[in-house]
């Protein structure tokens, strides 16, 4: 059997039952990387011997009879904007070439504590913005994998690792997950610590995860959601028990609010047709809901915040080497410097009122159903695709998940994005699992 075809939850159980070892799993992943990396280009830094060393430690530890962690022996890919003391962290830019952090970021520390094998660093776009890296879409190398978490999405889709970590400021988890045909989950803003992660915007930055199933994404997220005094947006609160709740049957069949939004005309014709068909399939369980006019400014508001914050957080890179930064990022930073404090604060001030509207909508509906992207991954690898169908939900900091439930006219994956109110991550994943199971019955 090829262990790279199994999900993380299955693999964890197989390790617990003694059917396989972590070393065998890591060797399978390394073999898959050897077979596909030349085409896919998912990895920025990979050390096979270090991966083997970690796996052997996991196997020896388990053999000792000591209690094992919730990710014991499972390989995980880490986006190359997360600080790691065992690998360089170069943030997708030549300006950070050879940068070696002194310590792990909080997320990597939590993964190690859970027993995960840190497989390596996955490719990020330049400074986690728009200029693409070397990664190609595993389904068709002539198409983009999306960004900015391109390597993480592609590595999971290609079977190189069962799990990976990414980040999202606008659409950098949901978009590449949709393009590459995997599950991408962006929890509520502040659920997962960003300490030790390249900062673009405190208001907008989220840590997210990639997996090949909803239960794998839930299991990984459960290990990462924790209060961290180093990130003041994290909260002291009870663990959400994502895996446990997402596996439960809903108390009643979920109802969905189908939201086209003001950018519906930017969706490809086959994507629009696919979502209309999904809406019809769900019947009385899905109503089309129009966002109120107050949402019309959400996309512009995110742009104000994101560009101004890029000018703040990335100005040092401009000073160190302006000509080594892409034209697109240089332009964004320059534009960000012109955004007034009034416009910035007005944009921030609309987040809570609009989030409250989502909260009220979800008194009647279990989740918002909307496209993850404009359509299939576009041809060409010079850009990473349009994040516009993610923008509003990133702006509001609400949880979002994309599930690969459909295909476009060229046979490429087409993700269905589900969105919930802040803090209701577990209910969102449970509703997504229910929807996936209903569609599987038809298939």
Straight-line N-to-C gap: 25 Å
Beta content comes to 5-15%
Shape: globular
Helix content: 25-40%
Overall average residue pLDDT: 98
Widest β-sheet, arrangement of strands: 1-3-2-4-6-5-10-11-9-7-8
How many independent structural domains? 1
Tally of helical segments: 16
**CATH topology title:** Amidase signature (AS) enzymes
**Are there runs of 5+ residues with pLDDT below 50, and where?**
none
Q: What's the story with the biggest beta sheet?
A: 11 strands, mixed
CATH superfamily: Amidase signature (AS) domain
H and E order: HHEHEHEHEHEEHHEHEHHHHHEHEEH
What's the CATH first level?
A: Alpha Beta
Radius of gyration: 20 Å
Number of strands: 11
Q: How would you classify the helix and strand content by structural class?
A: alpha/beta
Could you please describe the fold and organization of this structure?
With 443 residues, the protein is α/β, with parallel strands linked by helices. It has one domain (1-443): Amidase signature (AS) domain (Amidase signature (AS) enzymes). Helix content is 40%, strand content 13%. The protein is built from 16 helices and 11 strands. The protein has helices at residues 8-16, 22-40, 48-63, 106-113, 150-157, 174-180, 214-224, 242-246, 269-282, 298-313, 315-321, 327-336, 341-349, 351-361, 388-396, 425-442; strands spanning 43-46, 75-79, 117-122, 163-168, 183-186, 206-211, 256-258, 286-288, 367-371, 400-407, 413-419. An 11-stranded mixed beta sheet has the order 1-3-2-4-6-5-10-11-9-7-8, sandwiched between helices. Strand 7, helix 9 and strand 8 form a beta-alpha-beta unit. Helix 2 (22-40) packs antiparallel against helix 3 (48-63) and helix 10 (298-313) crosses helix 15. The longest helix is centred in the N-terminal third of the chain and has 19 residues, at 22-40. The chain is globular. It starts with 7 loop residues before the first helix and ends with a helix. The relative contact order is 0.13.
């Amino acid at each position: 059997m090829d262990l790279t075809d199994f999900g993380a939850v299955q693999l964890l159980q197989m390790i617990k039952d003694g059917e396989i070892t972590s070393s065998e799993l890591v060797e399978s992943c390394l073999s898959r990387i050897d077979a596909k990396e030349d085409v896919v280009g998912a990895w920025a830094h990979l050390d096979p011997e270090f991966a083997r060393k970690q796996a052997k430690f996991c196997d020896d530890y388990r053999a000792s009879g000591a209690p094992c962690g919730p990710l014991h022996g499972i390989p995980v890919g880490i986006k190359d904007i997360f600080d790691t003391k065992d690998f360089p962290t170069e943030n997708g830019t030549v300006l950070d070439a050879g940068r070696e952090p002194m310590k792990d970021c909080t997320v990597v520390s939590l993964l190690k504590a859970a027993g995960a094998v840190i497989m390596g660093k996955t490719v990020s776009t330049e400074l986690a913005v728009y200029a693409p890296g070397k990664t190609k879409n595993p389904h068709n190398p002539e198409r983009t994998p999306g960004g900015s978490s391109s390597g993480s999405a592609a590595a999971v889709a290609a079977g190189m690792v069962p799990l990976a970590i990414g980040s999202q400021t606008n659409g950098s988890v949901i978009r590449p997950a949709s393009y590459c045909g995997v599950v991408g989950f962006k929890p509520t803003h502040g659920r997962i610590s960003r300490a030790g992660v390249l900062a673009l915007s405190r208001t907008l930055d989220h840590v997210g995860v990639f997996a090949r199933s909803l239960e794998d994404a839930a299991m990984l997220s459960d290990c990462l959601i924790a209060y961290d005094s180093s990130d003041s947006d994290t909260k002291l609160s009870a663990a959400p028990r994502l895996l446990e709740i997402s596996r439960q049957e809903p108390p009643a069949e979920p109802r969905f609010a189908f939201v086209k939004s003001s950018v519906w005309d930017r969706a490809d014709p086959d994507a629009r047709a696919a979502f209309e068909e999904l809406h019809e399939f769900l019947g009385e369980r899905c109503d089309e809901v129009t966002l109120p006019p107050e949402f019309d400014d959400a996309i512009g508001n995110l742009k104000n915040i994101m560009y101004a914050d890029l000018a703040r957080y990335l100005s040092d890179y401009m000073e160190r080497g302006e000509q080594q930064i892409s034209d697109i990022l240089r332009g964004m930073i320059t534009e960000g410097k012109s955004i007034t404090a009034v416009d910035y604060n007005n944009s921030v001030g609309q987040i809570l009122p609009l989030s409250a509207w989502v909260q009220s909508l979800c008194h009647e509906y279990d989740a918002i159903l909307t496209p993850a992207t404009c359509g299939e991954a576009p041809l060409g690898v010079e850009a990473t695709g349009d994040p516009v169908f993610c923008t509003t939900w990133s702006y509001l900091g609400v949880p979002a998940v994309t599930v690969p439930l459909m295909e476009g006219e060229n046979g490429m994956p087409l993700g269905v994005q589900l969105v919930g109110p802040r803090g209701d991550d577990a209910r969102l994943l449970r509703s997504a699992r229910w929807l996936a199971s209903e569609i599987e019955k038809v298939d």
